[in-house]
Structure formats: structure tokens, C-alpha cells
Amino acid sequence: MPVDPGTAYVDPTTLIDDVNSRIVQALSAHDPAELHAAAARAGVNVGETYTGRLWTGGVCPLVRRYPTGEAFTAALTNGSPDALNAAVELLAVVAPAAAMSFALEVMRIDLGGFAFGHNRVPFELVMRGRAEKIIKRDLCSASPEILLDMLRRRSLAPGEIPKSKIADIPVAALIACVSAGELRFDQAESAGLFSEHPALRDGAGLLDALLKTRWFSAVDGHDGGLTHWLAHRLAETRYTPAVPALRELFTRQRKFLTTAGQNLLEIGTPEALEAASSALSPEGVPIDEYDRHDRQTIAIDALLRADPSRAFDVLAPLFEEQVLRSGDNRSESARTVLEKLTPEQAAAEPRWIERSLMAAQDRELGATARALLDQLDPGIVDQAAARVKKRKRKAAARSTAKPPPGDLIERYRAGEHERVWEELAALDRRPPKALAAQAEAVAMETMERVRCGLEAVVETLRAEAYPFHKKARALVPPPLDALRSVKRLERLTGGRLPLSLRAFYLVVGSVDLSGSEDGFRHDPKKHGPKPKRNEIVDVPEKYPFMYLSHFDPLVVLPLEEAVAEAERWAREGRERVGMSAPLDLTISPGPSFKANPRDAQPEPVDTVRLPGPFADVELHHGRGGTVPFVAHLRGCLAWGGFPGLAGTSIRPQAALDALVQSVVPF
Question: Residue 200 burial (CB < 10 Å; 0-12/13-18/19+)?
């Protein structure tokens, strides 16, 4: 007679005792010798040692523990724990149907946290394990509740459940198991349990399951993998009613924003693309800066897919010159736009081609923009380039910038150094001939003063035994054919050099104040006796010129190196479809190289972009920031050729005073 689940028992032990008594009664119908032979044939084991009702370890074959069938049946009659535990497994050999019935009854018993001892396995739990072993022989006979219970207890792997039984297990129960951490969701096993479930074969069932995960029900758990899987399946089915749920994951759940956003792009309906682009503000920057990179990439992609023309209206401000120069998040967003923009989208909105032509000249975006333009029809790109040039000519013709007043060279010599260069920098194109001649005279006068200042600085450094890296390169005058080399550089870059850089090459030549304390030589006449061992020395006072190379010494590489770099750049093929790529000419190596060239690490260098403006060119520091070339020289010589001294309070003041005393203002 089966156990009545509604029967009240004092504890689970009473219930199991009732099941055991009926199993013993079922075995008594078989001959003891038959039972003994069946145990030997099936390899049934029993526990070796018990303390009361508790199994304390070890197993051995039943036939060795009980040499005869009579000994085994006697142990059953006397309630021996090891014999009782082996009874249901032995019954499965001689009467499989009856054993299955009893095994299912054992699985329905809820121990309810009943404890039989610390760190010991009670024989009731051993009996449950044997029952599970019997049920696994015919899982189709088990109820969905038992299968779910075995999944929770990890005694049954998801892949072991017959496909015919998967449909009987409610999806909500499976999701609850995953959320509670009782069932691990992974592609190897659990995914098959869900993918074979009939309730998850259409979009409606998938969406219903997704809404039951803890990310929508606010129940704690571990169903992140399941949520990802359901979202991907919804995207594969292109089930449009799932868009609001995916939007919820994209905008509110950081854990799933990439998955949900990509799935919205896969669905691709106007509603889905609008949901994916909702993370962008009208200015084209992410509304939520947290996880900005993933959100902005997906949002920009969605905006471009939905309507390239509307996307241009929203995203074009990101390409304004002042935005790109700032180097902030908006300039990074501009790079993302060019990476996501496809040739088809650019062809559909010609303004994107024009914007890409402008971005092709930018220091940071140029390579990405040129790669896009190379994929387009050359004829379309040429037409866009013509439109851009026409607009530039019209803008130049409308320019109302007035020429600087007065005689520039006279004003410069009178002391208006910075003011005159500011006015020259405002001339964005070549001025009339008379004004151009004055500007060239100012540039030459400026560099004459720079050369005089550098000569005084180098002379002082040599007198004080400064450890130059290469003393012969400290200050090298222009070569005899400097003008010819300058014109060669201008032909290679496709435009006249800015006046400041041109005059430097023709008047100053090159300067290299880099050095290393490794080359420092102690001079007793200048530095006094050498310090004794372990003597504390005030280095800035005793050796004021020893460590100056660590303070960003001034370096402007020679003209011949500039020409060689331009020739390499030209050979590598700077010509692109519809435009020319600019040259970022290296002016100076990085600070660590100038501090100690022998042990320097690879680092960004200082460059100028050619062709450049008429008067002065911006120097791009490799470590960030820009400064006009003349202002860069002015700042360097203000600190004796070592502008890094401005950033430290511990400086060799005596050395600095000696270096700057002969520098002429310019």
C-alpha cells in the first residue's frame, strides 16, 4: 500500500521506517538464495560501519558482509541499517517495477531539514541516493516534481532528462531554480534543457520567460546567463513585442546593456532602433557617462541605421574644430561615428562624405576617415571635395579680418613681441605682398634673437660641464644649402612652411640640449672635492647642472632629418582618394629620451602638422596639449632651455639664473 502523503508523522524517520518495512515484505516473497545470487550479479554494496542509525564510513560488497542469503534476510528482519539501505537496490534487480514504485515514494519524502548527526550521512539519505539511482534507469516513470527535485539536488544533470519529459516541467519552475542558484545555466548543459522546451520555441514564450527572470521580478539570484540567452533568442526570432523589455535591459541594467543593445540592432525595426539610440542626447553624446563606450557605440550605430540624414543633424556638431581640439568625450564620440559609418550610409547622405574629408586632416581621426573614403566611389568623393573647396574659397572671400596696423617690424623691435605674433597668427591665409614681407622680417628677427639666446645657454652649459648626450649637436647652425632643403620640404608637403618654422631652419638650424647624468664628470675646480661615502649632499646646490636633463630640455631636430621623414612619408603613399593626408612632422622626441637617451622607453613625440598656417604652427606635445611654435621657444628659453623646471619647487636657482641672464626677449 503506497504511503499517504497527507499522513502525519512525528518525524521523517517514522515515514522511512514504514517504507522500509514494506520493502522487506516485498523481498520476503523471493528465495534467500535467489537474493544472494542477484546481489552478487549486480554488485550491490552495503555500509561497513554504523553507529546506531548513522553510517560512519566505508562500503563493501553485500555478499561479503552476508555470506548467505539467509544471513541477509535475517539482517533485514532485525532492521540492520546496511541491509535496509541495500534492500531497495536489490529489489530493483529481482522486481524492477516494485522497486521503482518504492523509489518514487522515497523521493517524495521531505526530510525538512531533519538532522541525524554532525558531518555524518544518515542511512535515510543513503536510501534516497539508491532511490535516485533506480529512478535514473527509467526517468520517464518519474513525475516532473521528482525530476525538478533531483535537478535541485544536483543528482540529475539537465542533459539526462528525456526530451519527452522536458515539456512536463514548468518553465517558471526552471527559472526559479536558476534564479535561486540551484540550477546552473550554461551552454553545455542547461541551455539544452531550455532550448528543447516547447514553451520557448516562439517569441511570446521567450518574452514571458524573460520577464520572469530576477532582472524583472526583483528577486535575487544567478540567472544572468539565462537572461542573456533569452534576449539573444528573442532577437533571432525578431519578435518585435520584446522591444520594450530589451530597452529596459539596455537603459537600466548595466550588466545586459551590450547584449540588449546588440539585440535591438538585430531586430532592426524603427521602434527597436529608436530604443537603441535613446542613450544619446540631441548633441550626440551619451546621456549617462557611466558605461559610456558601450552605450554610445550601440546608440550611434542605431542612429546611423535608422536615418543617415537625421544622424548627420545630430552627430555633425561632434566634428567641429573646437570639439576635436578639446580631446574630450565628444571627440571620442566622433571617432566612433566614423568607425560605425558604412560606405552605403555615407553615399546616402553626401554631407557625411564632406565631413569625412574634413576629418581626414585631423590628427586623431585622419586614419579612420581616410579608410572610409577609400571604400567610396572616387567620383563621388571628388565631387564632395570640390564642394568643400568651393565653400572654403567663399568663406575666405567673406573674411573681414583687418591687417595688423602699423609697421610690424618696428612694433616688434619696440617690444610688442607677443602682440605682433598674435596678430600674425590671426592671418589664416597669405596676406598681401607688402604685409607678407613685413611678417617674414618679423620671423627672421625673432629667430635671430632665439639663436643669440641659445648660443648663450649652450656656452654656459659647456662651461659648467653639463653632460650633453651629444655635445656636437647641442647647437648646429643651418647648412649652406638650407634654403634648398626648405624648398624641398615644401614641395614634399604641398605648401609653404609656416614663417616661424621656416625662419628657425634658416636662421637657427637645430638645437639638442638632451643629456644624461651618466655622462657627468666631476670637476674639482668647479665642484670642489668629491663627497665622502654616505655623505649627504645638496645636489641642486653642489651640482646644479647635473640633473637638468630631467626637466624636458629643448630639442628641435635638424632640417635634414625633417626632409628625410617627409621623403619616407611621400614614398609610403600619402595620396588618397579626393584629398591628401597631412604630415605630422617630428620636431622633438619625448621627455624620457631627452633625459637619458640610452635607457629611453618608446613614447609619443612632439610634432607639427604640415602644410600649416601662414605665420605660426601649432606644436602638438606627445603627452597632450598644443602650443604655438614661437610661444614654445619663448617658454623654453624663459627657463634656460629646460621648461620642466616650471613644474618643480626644487630647482637649481643658481644654474637657472646663469642660463637666462643672456636670453634676449623675443
Answer: buried
666/449 Cα distance (integer angstroms): 6
d(CA 530, CA 550): 22
Q: What is the mean pLDDT of residues 171-176?
A: 83
CB neighbour list of residue 379: distance below 8 Å, 6 or more residues apart: none
- Count of alpha carbons within 13 angstroms of residue 126, beta-carbon side: 25
**b/e per residue 306-332 (b: at least 16 CB within 10 A):** bbbeebbebbbebbeeebbeeeebbbe
* CA end-to-end span of the chain: 111
Alpha helices in 513-558 (DSSP H): 524-527, 539-542
Q: What is the DSSP letter of 506?
A: I
Of 622, 488, 463, which Cα lies nearest the Cα of 561? Answer: 488
Cα 489 from Cα 415, distance rounded (Å): 32
For residue 659, the SS3 value is: helix
Going by their DSSP bridges, the two strands 606-610 and 475-476 should be labelled as: unpaired
* Residue 49, strand partner residues: 57
Whole-number Cα distances in Å, 507 to 427, 463, 500, 599? 23, 24, 10, 32
Within the chain, what is the greatest distance between any pair of CA atoms? 129
Rounded Cα gap, residues 630 and 421, in angstroms: 8
Q: Is the peptide bond before 478 cis (omega within 30 degrees of 0)?
A: no
pLDDT band at 3 (very low <50, low <70, confident <90, very high): very low
pLDDT of residue 117: 44
How many Cβ atoms sit within 10 Å of the Cβ of residue 81? 22
Q: List the beta bridge partners of residue 378.
A: none
428 pLDDT band, cuts 50/70/90, is low
Q: Which long-range contacts (CB under 8 A, 24 or more apart) does 25-29 make?
A: 26/91, 26/95, 26/98, 26/102, 27/73, 27/76, 27/87, 27/90, 27/91, 27/94, 28/73
What are the beta bridge partners of residue 584?
609
Please answer whether residues 620 and 526 qualify as being in contact, where contact means their C-beta atoms are separated by less than 8 angstroms.
no
Closest of 381, 298, 312, 319 to residue 345, by C-alpha? 312
Confidence of residue 356 (pLDDT cuts 50, 70, 90): confident
pLDDT at res. 518: 61
CA distance linking residue 154 with residue 322, whole number of Å? 61
User: What is the pTM (predicted TM-score) of this model?
Assistant: 0.55
Three cell numbers, residue 532 = 665622502
Closest among 444, 465, 463 to 455, alpha carbons compared: 463
Alpha helices in 464-558, H assignment, sequence order: 482-493, 499-503, 524-527, 539-542
Cβ-Cβ contacts under 8 Å for 532 (sequence gap 6 or more)? none
Residues near 661 by Cβ (< 8 Å), separated by ≥ 6? 456
CA distance linking residue 151 with residue 229, whole number of Å: 20
Q: How far apart are alpha carbons 262 and 264 in whole angstroms?
A: 5
User: Across the beta sheet with 54-61, what order do the strands follow?
Assistant: 45-51, 54-61, 121-122
Residue 515 · residue 469 · CB < 8 Å: yes
